[in-house]
Amino acid sequence: MLDHKADLMVRLENPLLRRMWTGQVALDIHNPRAAVQEAIESPPLARAQGAAVVDALRQTLPNAAAYHVSAEMGTLIQYAASQLDGLDRIQHSIMPTRSGIARFEGGLPFHDVRGRKMLISWACWAPVLVQYAQHDTGEPMTGTVIYLFNDHREEPDEIYALLPKDAESKGFPQSAVDEVERTLGRWGLIGCNNLYEGMRLGPAMMTTREEHAAQILAEGDTPHEFTNPVRLMHAFWLLLGQTVADTSDAPVDRARRKRTGRMGIPHRVTVVQLRRKESARAEGETLVEWSHRWVVRGHWAWYHVGPDHPLAQEVAPGRFMARIWRAPYVKGPEGKPLVVTDKVYALHR
After folding, report:
1. What is the reported pLDDT for 178?
2. Residue 319 belongs to what domain range?
3. Does the residue 319 lie in any domain?
């Protein structure tokens, strides 16, 4: 994990990579795919913001907290994200750290606007000053950008498989394709999303705007609903603060501590797994046993909490509530085997 983080830090010092990602982010900002990414009509301003977004990752990555998320926990994140209310709002107070980098073991499925299946292998988040088109106060606002990557080395997705054919159709020589691959390494940028305080999560699957859908049709493709990654990250951050998630520090050997220490990288890596059996529980959460009986569906619920609760959100003066994951739990006669009827619950060890 730390070696890969160091690799991304080194690659971000390459001006060619920064130009490539700046152009990609600017294109998304100027020609947005959906309401989760607000449009900037001026191409120069879109490119300037794209450069700021890429540089924010470069500046904050050295001190970003590192998380390795198990495949089982990734499955729960997907399900928990689908159960959130689209009217829920982003609150920066639920984020575990100001900046971070997470490795999702096995990848989180992500469907793009053309119906292609992608995998979110890595996600980063960082604070950035941005100008929001729909919230223009005359001054940039402090927001958070999430950066989503496919791992081209360990989990290449459909987009990676199409890159050589796409380059050939545009007339790029093989030498240029090879240079791009050397520059990117494992880091295939899926896209970025700006989050601002109070922003609604929106639906689990997004619909692109009419003008973009027309452009896709003109290019011979069919527009599809696509995954809203904001919900995935929001669910991940919420679950980190709840008892269904078991977090622990991964051991880091001496050689790696010395190597990453020279780059100014903190030695801590947090491993996030499903808790085998819950102990202390927050109000409203239910004991989880994964070995037998049948599973009762998990869901989100709002609970009244005190102001010191780690997920407290002030909904009125002096009134606090928290979004709590009422975890799946098992019921049934003692000694009976667990019967799993939904793939999302194939989480037992």
Report:
1. 87
2. 278-349
3. yes
Question: How confident is the model over 259-307, as pLDDT tens digits?
Answer: 888 888 888 899 988 665 444 445 554 444 444 455 566 678 888 989 8
d(CA 66, CA 2): 8
SS3 assignment for 232-254: HHHHHHHHHCCCCEEEEECCCCH
User: CA of 292: how far to CAs of 73, 114, 330, in Å?
Assistant: 19, 41, 7
Q: How far is CA 69 from the centre of its chain?
A: 11
Based on the structure, what is the number of domains in the chain? 2
Tokens of 286: 């239910």
342 φψ region: left (φ > 0), alpha (ψ -120 to 50), beta (else): beta
Alpha-carbon distance of 268 to 60, in angstroms, equals 16
Q: What is the pTM of this model?
A: 0.79
247 inside domain: no
Task: Tell me which residues of the chain have a pLDDT lower than 70.
Answer: 30-41, 130-140, 243-244, 274-298, 327-349
